[in-house]
Amino acid sequence: MTDYLDVRSVSKSFGGLRALDDCSFSIEQNKSTCLVGPNGAGKTTIFNVITGFVGPDQGSIHFRGRPLNGLTPRQIIRGGIARTFQNLRLFGEMTALENVIVYLSGDTASGPVAALARPFHTHAELKRRRERAHLLLAEVGLAHKAADTVQNLSFGQQKLLCIARALATGAELLLLDEPTAGLSQAALTAMVDMVHRLRERGHTLLVVEHNTKIVQKIADQIIFLHQGRTVTQGPPGTILADPKLAEIYFGGVLNP
Amino acid sequence: MLFLQLLIDGLVSGCAVGLVAISFSLIYATTRVFHVAHAGLYTLGGYIAWYASTQGLPFVLACVLGVLVTTAAGALIQRQLYETLERRAATPLVMLIASLGALAMLQNGIAILFTPNILQFPNPWRTQIVSLAGVSLSYAQILVAVAGVLVFCGLLCVSRYTQLGLRIRAVASNPFLAEITRMRPRAVYVHVMMIGSGIVALAGILVGLDQAMQPYTGILMLLTATIAVIAGGIGSLTGAFTVSIALSVLQNIALVVMPGRWSIAATFGLFILFILVKPEGLFRKR
Amino acid sequence: MTFILSYFILATIFSIAALSTNLLVGVIGIFSVSQAAIFGVGAYTVALLTLGQTLPFALALVAATLLCALLNMALALPSLRVAGDYFVVTSFGCQLVMTAVFINWATLTGGASGLVGIPSPSLFGLSADDSPAFLAVAGSVLAVACAGFWLLMRSPFGMTIHAIRLDELAVAAAGRDVLRCKLSVSAISGAYAGAAGGLYASYLSFIDPTSFDLHVSILILTMLVVGGARTLAGSLIGPFLLLALPQALALIAIPSTIAGPVRQFIYGALLIAFMLFRPQGIAGRRL
Lengths: 256, 286, 287
What we know:
The complex is a heterotrimer.
Chain A: E1 5-14, E2 17-27, E3 32-36, H1 43-50, E4 58-63, E5 66-67, H2 73-78, E6 81-83, H3 96-103, H4 112-117, H5 119-139, H6 155-168, E7 173-177, H7 185-200, E8 204-208, H8 212-218, E9 221-226, E10 229-234, H9 236-241, H10 243-250
Parallel strand pairs in A: 3-8, 3-9, 6-7, 7-8
Antiparallel strand pairs in A: 1-2, 1-4, 4-5, 9-10
Chain B: H1 2-31, H2 38-54, H3 59-87, H4 92-113, E1 129-132, E2 135-138, H5 139-161, H6 163-173, H7 175-180, H8 185-210, H9 218-232, H10 237-253, H11 263-277
Antiparallel strand pairs in B: 1-2
Chain C: H1 2-27, H2 35-51, H3 57-81, H4 86-104, H5 106-109, E1 115-116, E2 122-123, E3 126-127, H6 131-153, H7 156-166, H8 168-172, H9 178-204, E4 206-207, H10 214-227, H11 232-250, H12 259-277
Antiparallel strand pairs in C: 1-4, 2-3
């Protein structure tokens, strides 16, 4: 089976700091893979490299067989990869609906010329986008919050909004950066359900996750990063029971 | 020996630009605020010293007074304006607009209190000339060069060898970390503003002595200085000072082929070329 | 009566300039002090094209609008490509260099003495020589400008540029071309400033470099800050209020030599005051 996303020997340094060191891993389509590892292991950096925000010093990334090196973030997103941010980066003053609309893919009437020269067409297009955005919010369970500004959403709702935005791009492969961090128990359950639903709809997920209980619930496969390289990858049962990894991660034993 | 004269003149005026550049660089690298009001403080220093001179104070004392008043003004702007805005999480745009407002108040306040027209220092050093090997320099020019080099070296020493310098560099490199490790970045910002304002006041005084005083020329000087800061690499004092001198020398030598009124256009053109080709600066610090 | 008309006409012209600044500074959040420079290019373009009877006013205005759109975009491009505060330097540089060009390229611009005898607009033989007619012309252009602004704000593009101000990186992560959006806004902003400048030249029939220097940029910026960003109302209130200021000041006996500096001092104070106490201006949204 050809690898869906293939990270090959990627290295990246920032000044003196070697964030990624000959990092390699691959993930399969329509599976949910968790990226685990201590802080500073390079998880967010690999996200930045995959999505084209940062160029690798060495190595390459292949998505569905095609190399991503040298592509702009815009091209990569249109190619089917979207990500969420650890610190959310929602548009604070805008409503949930507007946040999603900005992320909607599609070039019809998105430029200034259309806005000025074809106002009726643009108005119709905006209406269509509002509808699409509503549907996406409904998918993540936020339809009732569409008109609320981001500040009026709970933290759990804000995180779901991030997912809605990523879905809006139409991407197949979703990179989720710590989607459950800081969530209450109820919000956690909602997020885990969300992850399962995404996989059922045919998305492939690569999720940075620290919470081992969550990892067990959502991961088909785990990739363990440490100091910028892949220590190991495999099914959750094996990885989480390995005392050597527990040593690196916790200095103790992971409770399965 | 016109060429040599122009070269020497360029080296001298480069020292003045260099003072503006290193002081701006210090403030910008540490506080991240694009402090355009710096041009107003440059002007303020000159006028305070001028006023003191006309009231009979000897030049050195007038200088000291100018530097002190401007240092206080800089501290005031930092504490009352920038810090207040920063506490409210103001965007860089808001800070810039506020700084621009401060610039407008300073320049025009000076024009109202004194005069919008040109003033001269009541001091003959501008006209007293020293000639050496076919090149002539006024006392004022010698003072600019000496002060420029001394202050530059002094600032470099403070930055590298003193506790304050260390704190400044720490805050500059990671303000967030500095905050949580109790380095009190806000206090450092005030120190940095004071040092920077003092230096730029000196530049304003010496240039005023060497040429003339006018309330609105500060921004032109600051533009050249910020171009030098960027070209030299933000965060590098050596880069800022060196490129200031290089730019001034180039500007002066270009006078052979181009009228002086186009200097700023040529300098700016060079800047645009520069950011197209090597935007991160010639002397990378970070 | 002519005096009131004159005030209204100038306020109308500066409202168009304020809209220009509103788009760049208010909506997309790019600091600019070069609006007067572009305003000036518009003015000189219309002046030169109509003085030699080369083009009728309407076409000259269109030419000025297009030229300024392209110019603003070209000037913005190098520094927008690079992150950080480079744009601030570029903006100041633009303004100061343009002023130098207006003063020194005397064969084109008439130098420090400026250009005189710029004809009033005429259409199909009807001339807008008198103030009410010119107000109609300026008012029409303002109406078009307002309509354009309103349409932009209510479009998908408008939503995107609002988001760019809030978090540029997040907009890039949405797959949008942030640079292209900024350049588009630069172009439209330039077009507005150029149109305003063209009207200005035609109305006053005499222009010189002092009308387009840094002080005027600060004035226009103050209009935006006082009126308020990101709303139509803000771009109208600001100019009307600030152009009334000189009249209010005339009630106090200020020597003419420092009248200019006094006004500019007040603009500076207004900028600081509004940033500290009312960043949304009178009728706008928070900057």
